[in-house]
Design goal:
The protein is an all-alpha fold. Helices cover 62% and strands 0% of the residues. The protein is elongated, with a radius of gyration of 25 Å. The model has no long low-confidence stretch (mean pLDDT 91).
């Protein structure tokens, strides 16, 4: 053990060498050795991340975010704490809103994704909400759709229609038809149930 400690302290250890030795080392030895390394590409250290303390990975992610944006953070996300991820995403939201969060959303708590989506909607409308839709709750998607319908009618709902339940789409379509006529639902027609469309045809043409 003494020999290993001395070797790690007095030699420049490569990523490959540390990967090979990591299962035999104490956690703090891996962490301290890793901290001295210059990481050029995150892909080089993926096999090492299981042996590194979460706090060290969090710090690495924050530093990489300053240099490369979310690119490296996405790769590190599975090994990061929720708090550290959210801290970085708050910085990202301040700079770019939610438009770059699609890839990382699957690592986030659904309640936080919902919160980001609502804030993003207030900032840029539905344009970027669709990028988070897959990782949002149905309730929040419908809440945003309601806000959008109240503001702009049905024309933009198409952007998130594929993530809304058919029951909700039908409800929206029935309301829009009663207020604005059948042509108003053209943007979401592919998502409306055959039952609702058939009922309209029967009531108006037969």
């Amino acid at each position: 053990e003494g020999d290993i400690k001395e070797y790690l302290e007095t030699n420049e250890v490569s990523v490959d060498e540390l990967c090979e030795a990591a299962p035999l080392l104490k956690p703090n030895q891996v962490d301290e050795t890793f901290k001295k390394m210059e990481v050029k590409d995150i892909s080089e250290i993926i096999d090492l991340l299981d042996f590194i303390d979460e706090r060290v990975i969090n710090e690495l992610a924050k530093n990489r975010y300053k240099k490369t944006g979310l690119t490296d953070v996405c790769e590190l996300a599975p090994w990061m704490s929720e708090d550290a991820l959210e801290e970085i995403l708050e910085m990202e939201f301040g700079k770019n809103g939610i438009r770059n969060l699609e890839e990382i959303a699957s690592y986030l708590d659904i309640k936080y994704v919902d919160k980001l989506a609502k804030r993003g909607y207030e900032k840029t409308g539905l344009t970027d909400v669709c990028k988070l839709a897959e990782n949002m709750s149905e309730a929040t998607l419908e809440e945003i759709a309601e806000m959008e319908y109240s503001k702009n009618g049905i024309k933009n709902i198409e952007k998130i229609a594929g993530y809304l339940s058919i029951e909700y789409i039908d409800k929206l379509a029935i309301e829009a038809i009663s207020k604005e006529g059948i042509k108003s639902i053209i943007p979401i027609a592919p998502y409306v149930s055959q039952e609702v469309l058939s009922k309209y045809v029967k009531e108006n043409y037969f």
